[in-house]
Amino acid sequence: MQETHERIIVSVGGSLIVPDQIDTGFLKGFKDLVLQKVKSGFSFAIIAGGGRTARRYQEAANAVTPLSRQDLDWLGIHSTRLNGQLLRNIFTGYVLQRVIKNPTIDIDTDEPLIIAAGWQPGCSTDYDAVLMAKNLGAQRLVNLSNIDYVYTADPKKNPDAKKIEKASWAEFRALIPEEWDPGLSSPFDPVAAKEAESLGLEVAIMNGANLENFANYLERKPFTGTVIS
Is the residue at 133 inside a domain? Predict the structure, then answer.
C-alpha cells in the first residue's frame, strides 16, 4: 500500500523560475522531482514568486510614472500569477485546474498538486505560503530561493557573516526587519515569520537550484540549508 505523507507547502522563488529568461532546465527538473514524490505519496501546494519579472515591470512603470506602494504591489502580484499559470500548465494532469489567488479560501480537491500565487497588496508570497499552510494544516514549508543558507548578516556585504543551519523563530526574527516592504531583501518576510511562529510551522530555506537537496529534505535526510522552527 502506498504510504501517505502530509501535504508540503513549497514557495518557489521567481529567481528560479525566471532568473533572466524563463529557466526551462529548472522547470523540467522541478517537475520530474515533484511528480516522482507524488508517486511515492507526497502532495504539494506550490506558491510562485514574481522575481525579476516583477522587478522589471515595477522599474519600468516607475520610470514613466512614480507609483504608490499599492500599485507596485499589484504589479508584483500579477507577475506571481503569470509564473503560477506557467507552473499550473506544466503540471497538467496532476493539478487543481486553477491558480489559487486567495490562500484562505476553502480548497476542496483530490489532486496531489495545488498551484497558488500572490493575493493582495501588503502580502508577500512568503506570507501567502504560510496562510496556505494554515489553511491546509501543513506542518512543513520549503522556501526554494537562490541562497544556500540564512546568514547572520548579508554575506555579500559582511565577510564575517556566519551561516545558520538551525534557528528558533525568535532567533531568526531578531536578524530581520520588523516590517515588510515590497522591495525588501530578506530570507523570509517578517510578517510571515511572525505567523509561522504562531502556527509552530517548520520552514526550510535552501537553494532551489540543487533539487537533490530538496529531495533530501522531503525525505528527512541531511541537506544543505537552514531550518527554522
Answer: yes
Which helix (DSSP H) or strand (DSSP E) does residue 69 occupy? helix 69-90
CA distance 136 to 29: 26
CATH number at residue 30: 3.40.1160.10
User: Residue 153: which pLDDT band, with cuts at 50, 70 and 90?
Assistant: confident
Q: How far apart are CA 105 and CA 92, in angstroms?
A: 22
Asked if the structure places residue 103 within a domain, the reply is yes
Contact 37, 215 (CB under 8 A): yes
Question: Per-residue confidence at 1, pLDDT binned at 50, 70, 90?
Answer: very low
Query: By residue range, what is the domain housing residue 174?
Result: 7-228
Domain count, the chain: 1
Q: Which of 87, 103, 82, 85 is nearest to 35 (CA)?
A: 87
User: Residue 200, class by beta-carbon neighbours within 10 Å (0-12 exposed, 13-18 middle, 19+ buried)?
Assistant: exposed
Residue 1 lies in a domain: no
HSE of 180, CA atoms in CB hemisphere, 13 A: 19
